[in-house]
């Protein structure tokens, strides 16, 4: 809206008196275009009904393993993968009021990497693995760029067209 005003009526922007509040824009869009701000419609992940029980069972299994085998805390590892979009896309857009399905351009963009982060029960942060899709080292950033990064980060290629970790990739990080 500000770009439109700059192009069509720049005199309105002289001085610092003119402001575009969120409420003004929302009211304008509803009144003159019949549009409202929508959140993209797609299925969201869900938490199992018995999440608390599952967590307690996991803690019991870990405790039993530590007790039975004398596993040191440095070998009890909690890790997780998280998707990092290289080009972030919004999850909201303007669409006609009353629309039930709202399509947002770029949401399915696959330009992303996966970060695999892990920490031990003794508090040691393990090397972060940055995974890119690709079958060879040519899919990685230039070596002189990523070797200069803190040694707590390791770039790896997935060996295919996916960009997430698997058991062999986790083992490769733990052996470094």
Polypeptide structure, described:
The structure is a single chain. This protein has 176 residues and is α+β, with helices and mostly antiparallel strands. The protein is 28% helix and 22% strand. The protein has five helices and six strands, in the order ααβαββββαβα. The protein has helices at residues 2-8, 22-33, 51-69, 143-146, 167-174; strands at residues 35-39, 77-85, 92-96, 112-120, 128-132, 153-157. The strands form two sheets. A four-stranded mixed β-sheet has the order 2-4-5-6, covered by helices on one side. Strands 1-3 form a two-stranded antiparallel ribbon. β5 (128-132), α4 (143-146) and β6 (153-157) form a beta-alpha-beta unit. The protein is elongated. The chain starts with a helix and ends with a helix.
Could you give the topology of this structure?
Elements: H1 2-8, H2 22-33, E1 35-39, H3 51-69, E2 77-85, E3 92-96, E4 112-120, E5 128-132, H4 143-146, E6 153-157, H5 167-174
Parallel strand pairs: 5-6
Antiparallel strand pairs: 1-3, 2-4, 4-5
Question: Can you tag this structure with a few keywords?
Answer:
elongated, 22% strand, 176 residues, two-stranded antiparallel sheet, 28% helix, alpha+beta, four-stranded mixed sheet, 6 strands
Question: What does the main sheet amount to?
Answer: 4 strands, mixed
Oligomeric composition of the shown chains: single chain
SSE sequence, one letter per element: HHEHEEEEHEH
- Indicate the overall shape: elongated
The amount of beta strand, in percent, is: 15-25%
Q: Structural class given helices, strands, pairing?
A: alpha+beta
**Rg for CA atoms:** 24 Å
